[in-house]
Specification:
Strand content: 5-15%
Number of strands: 4
Radius of gyration: 16 Å
Order of helices and strands: HHHEEHEEH
Mean pLDDT: 93
Largest sheet: 4 strands, antiparallel
Length: 128
């Protein structure tokens, strides 16, 4: 059981990736050209977390969001269905489990996009 769990965690952290040099090159470019922009991504992510926290079935403490990664839980909602319907609305998220979701802000996401993402999540949750 311990080894199986360790393998899952290794994959979640990127340990099963191939050709990571391509990803590393992108990371290096970001470090050389966009470090100042990270602070804006973190603010936008906190705004996303605050918006999600106001929605029914979403469990998140926005104060815990310190980077551009927003992790939240769903209560009484099928996470797979949530992700599928949200994708149909043009908003992507990934899942750590059937109820634990992740959204990430980045250079191409601005505050208008966050407003639309929260609105789309609200529509999807209302439909579910």
């Amino acid at each position: 059981d311990l080894i199986d769990r360790a393998r899952v965690i290794r994959r979640q952290l990127g340990g099963a990736m191939r050709q990571v040099g391509v990803i590393a090159a992108g990371a290096l470019h970001a470090l050389e050209h966009n470090v100042d922009r990270l602070a804006e991504d973190h603010v936008i992510a906190r705004t996303l977390a605050e918006g999600l926290a106001e929605l029914p079935h979403v469990v998140i403490d926005p104060q815990t969001v310190e980077t551009n990664i927003v992790v939240f839980d769903l209560e009484d909602v099928d996470g797979g269905e949530f992700r599928q319907r949200l994708a149909a609305e043009g908003v992507l998220c990934s899942a750590f489990s059937p109820t634990r979701m992740r959204m990430v802000t980045h250079l191409d996401v601005d505050s208008d996009d966050i407003d639309e993402a929260v609105a789309a999540a609200g529509r999807v949750l209302k439909a579910l």
